[in-house]
Design a protein that fits this description.
- By secondary structure, the protein is of the alpha+beta class.
- The protein folds into two domains: about 150 residues, no CATH class; about 120 residues, Beta Barrel (Cyclophilin).
- The protein is built from four helices and 20 strands.
- Strands 12-19-16-17-14-13-20 form a seven-stranded mixed β-barrel. Strands 7-6-9-4-1-11 form a six-stranded antiparallel sheet, with no helix packed on it.
- The chain is globular.
- The termini are far apart.
């Protein structure tokens, strides 16, 4: 492992939620350990693509911004994809979806969200951090991963070191980078095993009503506010919970479970958002209007495979 005192990027001021995230932990849920990883994995993958990194390389996930200030100690090229958090390099605005050169002594500041919620800052070769159960991702609740392996978000005085060297400038092809969510954005959902247990009125409402993102939202899950959904099931044996699972507790207001979710749960489920829809929801600010759209498993798999082809060795794919 690299020496963390080496020159790289120094944290001058820590934002409220700036954490190292990568592709997440795979094959550990039987241990009761959550998946973690980048909530908007599509933005993470594009940020890494801009620098020639492996798609799931460790980067910074920056939520809201909140004054996160980084001082550059070594010249390199970085990439920023995802939300527009009013990022500025020495007061010059940065456009998300691009890579940019930085010089020693410059300061990179993230302010408040102007479009979207989470930004991803990638570094050449990915960030150095201890691997815990196969991932560098920060999981505060379980005290795993992150810069020092203890699940702690960044704090002032931390120093970030990267593992590779910059490549020549790249540009994301027009139309391939998903835009930030707009009012009424559609979230694809694959119906689940308990969907037939919801009343007909509830099913109609679930897929025809407008839902609003509640302010009770974090990396564990997002509550949606709208019509009260009713399920005929009185109780359930707890079962495994996938990414994007849409649970409906007794109050009838759905909860969409994200990367830091619990590993099992006992509420009935409408189904699960597709991985692409879960990434889109992760960029929705409180109050954002969304709609649920039922899709087949085959459609969800086809859409996922198409997106993943963009990050293969052959480069961005046509459709």
């Amino acid at each position: 492992m690299s020496d963390f005192s080496a020159e790289g990027v120094r944290v001058i001021q820590a934002g409220p939620l700036a954490m190292i995230e990568d592709g997440g932990r795979v094959g550990v849920r039987h241990l009761g350990v959550t998946q973690s990883g980048a909530a908007d994995w599509v933005s993470l993958y594009w940020a890494n693509w801009l620098l020639g990194n492996a798609p799931d390389s460790a980067a910074l996930e920056i939520v809201v911004g909140g004054g996160l200030t980084l001082e550059i100690e070594r010249a390199t090229r970085l990439a920023l994809v995802g939300a527009d958090l009013d990022a500025r390099l020495d007061d010059a605005p940065l456009v998300p979806g691009t890579s940019f050169a930085v010089r020693e002594g410059q300061r990179l500041v993230f302010r408040q969200p102007r479009d979207g919620l989470r930004g991803y800052l990638a570094f050449p070769g990915g960030l150095e951090a201890p691997e815990v159960l196969g991932s560098r991702s920060t999981t505060p609740r379980e005290q795993l991963g992150g810069l020092h392996g203890d699940g702690r978000p960044l704090k002032a005085g931390d120093r970030l070191v990267w593992l590779g060297h910059p490549i020549d400038e790249r540009s994301i092809p027009t139309g391939l980078l998903p835009p930030m969510p707009r009012p009424g954005c559609r979230l694809a959902l694959v119906p689940g095993a308990q969907i037939a247990e919801f009343t007909g009125t509830s099913l109609y409402a679930a897929f025809n009503a407008v839902w609003r993102v509640d302010d009770r939202a974090d990396r564990m899950g997002v509550r949606l506010r709208g019509p009260r959904l009713q399920c005929r099931l009185g109780s359930m044996i707890s079962e495994g919970i996938p990414l994007g699972a849409v649970q409906v507790p007794p109050d009838g207001q759905p909860i969409v479970l994200l990367n830091d979710r619990q590993t099992i749960g006992g509420y009935p489920r409408l189904g699960a958002l597709t991985p692409l829809a879960a990434a889109r929801l992760a960029q929705c600010l409180p109050g954002q209007e969304v709609r649920l759209v039922a899709v087949s498993r085959e459609r969800a798999v086809a859409d996922y495979r198409w997106v993943m082809r963009n990050f293969s060795d052959g480069g961005p794919a046509s459709r």
